[in-house]
Amino acid sequence: MIKEHYIADLKTINRATRFESTFLVQSKEIRSKKKSGEPYLVLRLADRTGVMDARMWDNVAAVAEVFENSDFVEIRGRVQDYNGQVQIVIGRLKVVPRPQIDPGEFLPRTSRNIDKMFGELLTTIDGFSNPHLKRLMSGIFRDKETARRFKQAPAASGMHHAWVGGLLEHVLSCLRVSKLLASHYSELDADLLASGVLLHDFGKIFELSVDHAIEYTDEGRLLGHIAMGSAWLERRCDEIEGFPPRLKTLLLHLVLSHHGKLEFGSPKQPLFPEALALHYIDDLDSRLEMMRAVTGEIVGERVWSQFHRGLDAIVLKKEAFLQQGSKTDTPQTSADPAQASSPPQHSPARTEPAPIAPPAGRHGQPAGPPALHPEPTPPPEMAQAESDETPSARPAPDLFSDPGSAGESRE
Q1: pTM over cut 0.85
Q2: What are the pLDDT digits (tens) for 51-61?
């Protein structure tokens, strides 16, 4: 199957142009219109050039149950700008059988040179001064099959670095930060921290598959990358004769605690400096990548993104914000020196009003002072982020002369 239109092309396509193309379904959600209660589809579509949100407003009942996440769909539709972001409005949709798909067209891939990145990783290991960690890491990453899987693995299924080579890109970025921290904080063991960076997400090579799409394996769904990675690490340490048991325990704690909190999936919280540093390095790198991706989707004159679930916030595109300010802000001018040197004008004397008593709090006690930093009123984009179904926001129905195969069954 020849793919004609890619996500990257759609960002600049004429908004009046109808197009047909095939995409990977990265996520699927069925919602209801507020007034009518009728269903509509919210999709996240992907190919090797990127991802884009999509909406299907009509004929939803005929297709909603014939495909799932990680399926491939051929759509006919158009592109529109909504809330400062580009999205696809789908008029027709059908499932494409996997044997007809070339996975290379749909799996997003790092833009960086994978072999060059992996070479930098090996150079870091060669520079270890701890002989036990150097032997362990060299044995892991110089194994041909392990290296192949590590180079191909994504760092996540959707939130951050969700592409072929994403895990390697994420780990290498974290390695660079770990070197900076270890050079600044003398209490950090550089080799131990770097080993934690190398191993913290190693379980992703077992948790995620990239055969046809980035999706979870059965074992990944049942066990998760933290449990799988720590179990695998323990076996590798036990295979090395004379490997210090307590050093193995520290490595296992680094893997088990790197999510930071129990509610974030870590069986343990970080309990020594390298574990704490690893958690914040991992969290910082993943969140900055999410922000980079979100701001890249803001188009036009908008400066705010829609609400992002991973960041639990809306995001400001600071370049656009500053550019808008440079067009509208008026610089303040100094006062006229002549006026500044003139004597002040005296106002008539007045009597100060009596102080107003503060309002009573609970149980008759005085209420506390007002907050010094009250919560800001969210911008309108935040309130509108989930209101695609409202009549004012809903795009015009996508009408086609060809009724298409909206109800086609999954093959």
Answers
A1: no
A2: 899 999 998 88
